[in-house]
Amino acid sequence: MPARRLLYLGTHQLAAYRWQAGTLLGEGSFEATEEGHRAFADYLATHRSSLFALLVNVPEEGFQIETIPFLRGADRQAVLARKSAQLFFNAPLSATRSLGYAKTRRKDERVLIAALTNNTFFEPWLAAFERSQALLSGIWSLPLLGSVLLDKLGLATENCLLLSVQDQSIRQSYFEKGELHFSRLAPLHNSSIVGIAQGLAAEAVKLQQYLISQRTLGRGQPITANILAHPGALKAIEASCIDTETLRFNLVDLHDCARRSGLRTLPPASHCETLFLHLLAAAPPATQFADDSLRHGYHLWRIRSALNGAAAVLLLGCLLFAGKQQVDIDNTERRTAEHLQAASDARQRYEAIVATFPPLATDSETLRRALDRYAGVVAGSPLPGALYRDIGQGLQAAPAIMIDAIDWQSGAIAETGKAGAVPDPDDAHETAIVRGHLDPDGNDTPRRRVETFERFLAALRTVPSLHVEVIEQPFDTASGKSLRGGADDGTAARPQPFVLRASRRSDA
Length: 508
Known about the structure:
Layout: E1 4-9, E2 13-20, E3 23-31, H1 34-46, E4 51-56, E5 61-68, H2 73-87, E6 94-101, E7 109-116, H3 119-132, E8 135-141, H4 146-153, E9 159-166, E10 169-176, E11 179-187, H5 193-213, E12 223-229, H6 234-240, E13 247-253, H7 254-261, H8 273-282, H9 296-355, H10 364-380, H11 385-397, E14 401-410, E15 429-438, H12 446-461, E16 467-472, E17 496-505
């Protein structure tokens, strides 16, 4: 952040101060002569990297209140520029300040137009800024800071006067609701305490009469005159400033005002230059007189500062992100080390447990291959669901058939019924040995049992892919035996077991 320097320009000289944390440090004064102008240019060249703010207190200034239509943007700026040129011809140091909008349907805007009219006086001082390319943040008039002061003191009433002493002159300003409407500068011929007191009293009455003559104040309208004075001069001023029916004096302790404003360097006398300079440094008003050509270097500095600030924020964000990433990396490495150690401990425990196992007949690689093949065989083996559904359909055609057991096997068996026969897993057949019996009925006959069993076999054989072979009949059909339809030979009440084999290709 560059150093901040404040300049106070009066009628006869310019004073330079350095402002730091509420303290004003005087760095010299420059007379309004050619020699003084050259010395000021050298001063600017020495401190060209500082930020300068210029406070002006001269009598050659004008204030005019105008009403303009409700406008915005470029149209409003064009109207204000035309009004300013009409009122203050050839005055480049001009400023405008909005006083609010009328409470009517059109919402016309009241605007204060101010200008510093003595171009010859300001030209050498501003030329020094242009030659040195110093950073000029703006040019302010002392009356514009009166609004800031009244707001800090809580004195922004309906209408009031503010009188202060500085630079062998008395500044008198008129405010309505805290907004400046008029200001003038009167010379102070007697700088003694009594002379200052008499001058303040006389100028307050003159300003009141002028405002009444301009119909700014109504006759008989009361008004308060706030006077800034050194504590040592309060009694003399109070003796000279006597209240009337329409004019009331309010004396403000200059030291108390400085403390409430945050100024650490208390004014040694009733002169208020340092107080207004501090207000300018702490809370500069938005309204100022310098155009963009005078503030070109300041605008470039603001752009550079904004870019540097954005770069600093970006760098800080990158550093924070990098720090977070580093913390995450450290945490990941720590957790990885913990997991590796846990895996190592688990591997050691596993090896210790494996060491207690009895030795195997084969090595682990051969066993692993056998298990993999077994898993492949199991995974590729068919399920008996389809074959069971086919058998169930046959049972629906012969309800008297009772199933006792079904032995399902995958793969063809070379010798069916041979003990210890092992199916070939590579064969795509599936076989079911069905054991059951015919449920006896009191009215059942051998012929009817044969018909029931044959109906069951016929239902099974309707499935094209199913091959059915009877291994054991539920009745004896050998030659020499006869089937009698009505006689009860004692076998009707006994269950008649049977065994058959149903096979099919599993991929059918």
